[in-house]
Amino acid sequence: MIRFDSDLNIFYPSLIADKTFSCGFTTKLCGDMRRTENISAFFSSANLFPKTMVLPEQIHSVNIAVFDPFKEQTYPIEILEDTDAVLTSLAHVALIVRTADCVPVIFIDKEKNILGISHQGWRGTLKKLVCLVIEKMKELGSKPENIQASIGPSINDCCYSIDEDRRYQFLSEFNGYSNRVLLSRRGQTFLNLPLLNYLLLIESGIRREAIDYFPFCTCCDEERFFSYRRDHKKNYGNMLHFIVRN
Ligand SMILES: [Zn+2]
């Protein structure tokens, strides 16, 4: 279940978070996480002091990095170029993505201590990034039945209208899911990105009861979330989503 921590003003998946693994999805109340100083301030307030914070550059690709600081020189903040997902088996490495409407997904295999995070908007979802992350975890030794995942705050089909070209792309790729993820209303098509990512996780062999699913919409809930769709013409910010093994 997704719960709210009123001390930190974050949502977190109770399925995954425990003494060993800290994870969550920040809200607007934590500040704009495009700013590095807000990221550091957030981790301090949460009493988390990761040695390294690792952030995919987020270019709407399906490139996945496996973070291994023994191969590379490590800095307190590592931006991984040309990637949208990252995995690690190391402790004290915080994996981070930042969004405002796109879908953040946290992955964990507590048997093998493999954790991951990914960012997908419509492009990454169309190319099934979450399925590729599960494939990569399997390469690293995970069994799908041991993987848990959580889908964080994102824009929902109440607000995410798409044009005819994009509707056609999703219809061609996901014909079997189209009646669940594509909705017609008032002559417009709306896409349910988080539900599609949920269905893709199931398709990859993740058990239904091993997925914590965030039920709200970033665009509807102006008090708690930044939303690119709602605010891109004025000021908008980013929420931060993270997982770290303590
Ligand atoms: Zn909405």
Topology record:
Blueprint: E1 2-5, E2 10-13, E3 21-26, H1 36-45, E4 52-56, E5 64-66, E6 77-80, E7 85-88, E8 93-99, E9 103-109, E10 114-120, H2 122-126, H3 129-139, E11 147-151, E12 161-162, H4 164-173, H5 178-181, E13 182-185, E14 188-191, H6 193-203, E15 211-213, H7 228-231, E16 239-245
Parallel strand pairs: 4-6, 4-8, 5-7, 11-15
Antiparallel strand pairs: 1-2, 2-3, 3-16, 7-10, 8-16, 9-10, 9-11, 12-14, 13-14
The structure holds zinc ion.
Zinc ion (ZN) binds at residues 156, 158-159, 217, 219-220.
Description:
This is Purine nucleoside phosphorylase. It comes from Candidatus Roizmanbacteria bacterium CG09_land_8_20_14_0_10_41_9. InterPro entries: Cu_polyphenol_OxRdtase (IPR003730), Cu_polyphenol_OxRdtase_sf (IPR038371), Cytotoxic_necrot_fac-like_cat (IPR011324). With 246 residues, this protein is an alpha+beta fold. The protein has a single domain, classed as CNF1/YfiH-like putative cysteine hydrolases (4-Layer Sandwich), CATH 3.60.140. The protein is 22% helix and 31% strand. It contains 7 helices and 16 strands. The strands form 3 sheets. The protein has a 7-stranded mixed beta sheet with strand order 1-2-3-16-8-4-6, with no helix packed on it. A 6-stranded mixed beta sheet has the order 5-7-10-9-11-15. Strand 2 (10-13) and strand 3 (21-26) form a beta hairpin. It is globular. Zinc ion is lined by residues 156, 158-159, 217, 219-220.
